[in-house]
Design a protein that fits this description.
The chain has one domain: Beta-galactosidase, Chain A, domain 5, CATH 2.70.98. It contains two helices and 27 strands.
Length: about 350
């Protein structure tokens, strides 16, 4: 068995002239993750199939310019607030804060220049669990309309047992809201060249947060039982995706936050996905209370991605571990308030096998 290693190579320059690097994390079995310090983006993730053949399983681009121009959040760290905040506004301690409306009238994934467009300070190392990439970013008070100066540290680890673990930490000097997540689109068969509808999905959640026609949570927390959103047992993503159901019509498929079983703050099993063709499977564990399942409804064939793959509708899926969308405006949802002196700390792990 080979030794774990990490390499750094140039990945181009931003329009500002700043240099961007590409880090490759390789574990002893040969699995690898390519991650850039621009947006903390996972460019590629190579894991074995049931025959032991390594293949990339995430959607993305070949070059930096495409990521700078892109709006699909392929592989990126998203924040300050992952997912949507209704009408780009919330109140905190009696003051109203207005954010960029970059998703119709609503705020999405941190705004026009969220963490996915930031250049992070990076340091690679060989840790006890595998090669790691530590990324640091300071978000100034008022950036994208959010209060408080925020220090963020995100660490990627490609473990010896082939999991991509993401550890999030943050601290603020002023009361603020925070919801960090990771936004890879996965396709366990061919990295987005074909549909994901035959992937088998299981989500360990008895409830979800229904949305309105603009994908903002209504505030209800509903049971998945007897609905097309019931993935408590493994089943094909495409089995009921086009069923005539109000929630599927609103999202054009699946784009919903699931309320995970277990206690928030504990590392819980959130989901398992398997591609029968390749035998590859991915299991998600997280300390977050929610998991957004997006079935790639907005991919429309207009993006030509890595190695010439055309990303058609439902050619990739996201499983974004998170707090619930629009929590700052829904007091009964788990709180996303972060105060000075508190240590924001979450972990999400994507573990792969091909049994």
């Amino acid at each position: 068995m080979a030794q774990a290693q990490i390499t750094r190579d140039p990945f181009g320059n931003l329009p500002t002239g700043e240099a961007v690097d590409l880090y490759t994390l390789i574990n002893p079995s040969g699995a690898s993750a390519q991650i850039t310090n621009y947006g903390g983006i996972v460019i590629a993730l190579y894991v074995p199939d049931s025959a032991g053949v390594l293949g990339n399983i995430v959607l993305g681009h070949n070059d930096l310019d495409a990521y700078v121009a892109g709006k699909a959040y392929f592989g990126a760290l998203v924040g300050r607030y992952a997912n949507r905040i209704a009408h780009g506004r919330f109140s905190l301690q009696g003051a109203e804060y207005r954010l960029a409306a970059n998703d119709g009238p609503h705020h999405l994934h941190g705004g026009r220049r969220g963490f996915d467009k930031a250049l992070w300070r990076a340091a690679g190392a060989l840790g006890p669990d595998g090669p790691t990439l530590e990324l640091r970013y300071v978000s100034d008070d008022g950036e994208e309309g959010y209060p408080g100066a925020l220090e963020v540290v995100v660490t990627y680890t490609l473990t010896d047992d082939t999991a991509l673990r993401i550890d999030y930490r943050a601290a603020t000097d002023r009361d603020t809201v925070l919801n960090l997540s990771h936004h890879s689109y996965f396709n366990l068969f061919d990295a987005g060249a074909s549909s994901i509808l035959d992937h088998e999905m299981q989500i360990f959640a008895d409830r979800y947060t229904p949305v309105d026609t603009e994908l903002i949570p209504t505030g209800a927390i509903a049971a998945v039982h007897s609905t097309p959103l019931d993935f408590k047992r493994p089943r094909r993503i495409g089995a009921d995706i086009d069923q005539d159901h109000q929630q599927l019509r609103a999202a054009g498929g699946y784009d919903h936050n699931f309320v995970l079983n277990g206690k928030p703050g504990e590392l819980v099993r959130a989901a398992r996905v398997r591609d029968p063709s390749s035998g590859r499977a991915m299991e998600v564990h997280t300390t977050q209370p929610g998991l957004q399942f997006d079935s790639g409804n907005f991919l429309d064939g207009s993006i030509v991605g890595r190695d010439g793959a055309v990303y058609g509708r439902r050619h990739g899926f996201c499983l974004e571990a998170q707090h619930f969308p629009d929590s700052p405006n829904k007091p009964h949802f788990p709180s996303t308030l972060l105060r000075p002196g508190q240590d924001y700390r979450h972990t999400t792990s994507y573990k792969f096998d091909a049994k």
